[in-house]
Specification:
This protein is mainly alpha-helical. The protein has one domain: Rhodopsin 7-helix transmembrane proteins (Rhopdopsin 7-helix transmembrane proteins), CATH 1.20.1070. It has 11 helices and 3 strands. It is globular. The chain starts with 8 loop residues before the first strand and ends with a helix. Belongs to the G-protein coupled receptor 1 family. InterPro entries: GPCR_Rhodpsn, GPCR_Rhodpsn_7TM, Olfact_rcpt, Olfactory_Receptors. One of its GO terms (molecular function) is G protein-coupled receptor activity. This is Olfactory receptor.
Length: 309
């Protein structure tokens, strides 16, 4: 990636400059990142090798867990490394790659959550046509479309970042590279680019959240026509999805729908949706999903049995 800016590297100030607090950040971030990788990997392997989790919902959950893993990997390793490093330097090219990966995998996660809502809508509101509508080929096409749209979105974000000239201060008051903290360092009037950012990422997050909330309201309203047992099962699944949606979207909307102003809480809000939420997702989907838990038990029992023979 070529660039002709005078600034060739940035210094990430991180969450804190206090050495004692940095050690705490290192431990907590390492725990969360390790837990995220292990939890999502467990879900990925369970869905991959389980014969009982072949429905479209788990096909999309597989991609959500993969996107979660990549999304948190775009920021967490740098945060962990910088917490124990004297020099928190990131090159211009690495910074741009972080902007790209952060928006790419974040967009994938958003679109997969929408596809999961579509799957639940068809399953609950059109049960007789479910297998016809949500065929395997259709699901594959939808997920490919999600990845392509995410790539286009991230390209648009990196295009905005590449427009920014950096000729002065290179200290980013954040733990990762994103457009908001970079706008503060640019030697130009960033009003137009900030409007484009809000119109792109802000509108993308907000419209997706509103669409998801409307779809789940329709789904929950339609449950009144189901049996008590069917209503209980569908309600459990929808509650799980709504929890994940709120945990991910509310912080994103807070960050990307505002004008070019920074608040003291911005870094903690970003930390929540880039590191904490991906850590919580595997817990939410396994603790509240009996099918996933049973599939995990069966796989582990088969593995242990085969090893003892």
């Amino acid at each position: 990636m070529q660039q002709n800016k005078s600034v060739t590297e940035f210094i990430l100030l991180g969450l804190t400059q206090d050495p004692k607090k940095q050690k705490i950040v290192f431990i907590i971030a390492l725990i969360f990142y390790t837990g995220t990788i292990m939890g999502n990997l467990l879900i990925i392997l369970t869905i991959k090798f389980s014969r009982t989790l072949g429905s479209p919902m788990y096909f999309f959950l597989f991609h959500l867990s993969f996107a979660d893993t990549c999304f948190t990997t775009s920021t967490a390793p740098r945060l962990i490394m910088d917490a124990i490093s004297a020099k928190k330097i990131i090159s211009y090219n690495e910074c741009m790659m972080q902007v790209f990966s952060l928006h790419f995998f974040g967009a994938v996660e958003i679109l997969v959550l929408i596809l999961m809502a579509v799957d639940r809508y068809v399953a609950i509101c059109k049960p007789l046509r479910y297998h016809t509508i949500m065929k395997r080929q259709v699901c594959i096409i939808l997920i490919i479309f999600a990845w392509i749209v995410s790539f286009i979105h991230s390209i648009s974000q990196i295009a905005l970042a590449l427009k920014l000239p950096f000729c002065g201060p290179n200290m980013i008051d954040h733990y990762c590279c994103d457009l908001q903290p970079l706008l503060k360092l640019a030697c130009m009037d960033t009003y137009v680019i900030n409007v484009q950012l809000v119109a792109n990422s802000g509108a993308f997050c907000l419209s997706s959240f509103v669409l998801l909330m409307i779809s789940y309201c329709i789904i929950l309203h339609s449950l009144r026509n189901h049996s008590a047992e069917g209503r209980k099962k569908a309600l459990s699944t929808c509650t799980t999805h709504i929890t994940v949606v709120i945990l991910f979207f509310v912080p994103c909307i807070f960050i990307y729908t505002r004008p070019a102003t920074t608040l003291p809480m911005d870094k903690m809000v970003t930390l929540f949706y880039t590191i904490v939420t991906p850590f919580l997702n595997p817990l939410i989907y396994t603790l509240r999903n009996a099918e996933v838990k049973n599939a995990m038990r069966k796989l582990w029992s088969i593995k242990i049995t085969s090893e003892t023979k």
